[in-house]
Amino acid sequence: MDFSLSAEQQAIFDMAHMFGQEEIAPHARTWEADGTIPKDLWHKVGALGFGGLYVSEQAGGSGLTRLDATLVFEALSMACPSVAAFLSIHNMCAKMIDTYGSAEMKARLLPDVLSMRCFLSYCLTEPGSGSDAAALKTKATKSSTGFILNGSKAFISGGSYSDGYIVMVRTGDAGPKGVSAVYVTDGTPGLSFGAPEQKMGWRSQPTTQVQFDDCKIPTGNLLGEEGAGFSYAMAGLDGGRLNIAACSLGAAQTALNQTLRYMSERKAFGKSIDQFQALQFRLADMEIELQAARVFLRQAAWKLDHDTPDASTHCAMAKKFGTEAGSKIVDHCLQLHGGYGYLADYGIEKLARDLRVHQILEGTNEIMRVITARHLLSNQR
Q1: Mean predicted confidence (pLDDT) in 246-258
Q2: Which of 66, 220, 222, 255 could form a disulfide with 301 if both were Cys (CB 3.0 to 4.6 A apart)?
């Protein structure tokens, strides 16, 4: 059992970290204030091969493992977890096209998706169906040329911003087997968006409702098989859960690094505050939890790469543990900064706001517990 990164993996991490520190970190607060990310950033990201991290090399992607990809997201989130998580969504969609799309769809879409001239959003959640995703109601009715979509999606990162949308729709009866996945191009008549959501964190990501009113798409925009869309959506979430945990850990690492520097400089009662044993214990606890979460995450990624029977359960557990650990560490770092941690200039409060949603999206942490408990109980029968 080897826990060390290979030379190639270390190079992947270092490249992503350098890019994040040079191209993202200096602008993160500005993009948050603007409520958007300049699209020319994605062209630079695409040039690094990060637009299709685990898209197959045969299709033009980077062909990385899920473990490799978590290194990219951890490194980028050290600059800004909002930007890194936005890229994770695009990669989840790109992988779905590569895995389930027809040869014609892949030839038509993937070149621009991989170069990131085309940015993608994932549309599953609806106003009336969050954790109960299989209850979605957005309807796709067959026509002579394709499908006509009616309904709406909620909390969509990239709504009104993205160039294409992977949308889970109902083409059959109630339940998961009646769900299909389709691709909708921005600008399609009948596609519209709600007002930008005002959010606690992830403010650089434009987020809106996505609405369909007699939105017509061609037959060729059906992703894979009709009725298989829910299984496609769930398969995509395993990797998304790993990525969002990685984003939490990268942000927590940045907060801890900043806190160590701050504590070495901040004086109280005649010495730097990192010399007080009670505060050293706080630092030690954070480091232990961060390292434990990182090992857990990489084990889960290894299981997903090797398609083990318990891979989905480990992805759920790693997501729950990693996102909660990340938020807890950042909160402790804010406390150790005292009043300065509450100020935007130090960057800790932004990390606290950005990470809070990680316990909600890609399946709430309550659902991660449900998945874990079901796995435990199934093994007792």
Answers
A1: 98
A2: 66
